[in-house]
Amino acid sequence: MNTSNAVDANLEHRVEKTFCRICLASCGLDVETDGKTIFRIGPDKDHPNNWKDFCSKGGSANQLIDHAKRLRQPMKRVGDKYVEATYEEAVEDIAKRLNLIRNRHGANSIATYLGNPGAHNQPGTIAQSGFMKAIKSNNAYYVGSLDTNNLQLSVEKCTVLKWRFLSPMWIMQIVSCFWG
Ligand code: SF4
């Protein structure tokens, strides 16, 4: 996909309704596109799940696709420079270093943190959980475990589901969705 303003007459110009995955607010978006090019991203004023607006991150999300400085492969720090590496090289190098740390200090010396927008990417949460189980570390953190542990604990204690990662914000939204 590119984001230039060139209009291709063979493609259907349309507005796609979707939502921003960058943070928990999940603002509704109207994306003007022909399926190949993004021409404009605007707030979906009719979206039931937001404040009828968006922030500059959602408005410029198309830059994630073909910004000149987009990282397209792993970069390895060599001295005071970053050089391109293959995924195989990156995984091998990181695995070697993590094994050294784990052997020296134990599995719990390795922690992960999953924040925005990775936390909204289901494979991201599955990968984090699978990785931490594989290396046997208990130290998996995410944005809620840093500053809203009290809320997570309240949800675990007070709700039928007893699921600490269910955000109180989501619960309020679900309740208002079903019961107005
Ligand atoms: S538009 Fe901004 S506030 Fe809304 S979900 Fe995206 S990043 Fe979050």
TrEMBL record:
Q: Which Pfam families match?
A: Molybdop_Fe4S4, Molybdopterin
Q: Where is the 4Fe-4S Mo/W bis-MGD-type domain?
A: 13-69
Superkingdom as given in the UniProt entry = Bacteria
> What InterPro entries does the record point to?
Mopterin_OxRdtase, Mopterin_OxRdtase_4Fe-4S_dom, Prok_molybdopt-oxidoreductase
Q: Which UniProt keywords apply?
A: 4Fe-4S, Iron, Iron-sulfur, Metal-binding, Oxidoreductase
Q: Which GO terms describe its cellular component?
A: membrane
- Give the coiled coil ranges: none
The protein depicted here goes by the name 4Fe-4S Mo/W bis-MGD-type domain-containing protein
| Species per Swiss-Prot/TrEMBL record | Zhongshania marina
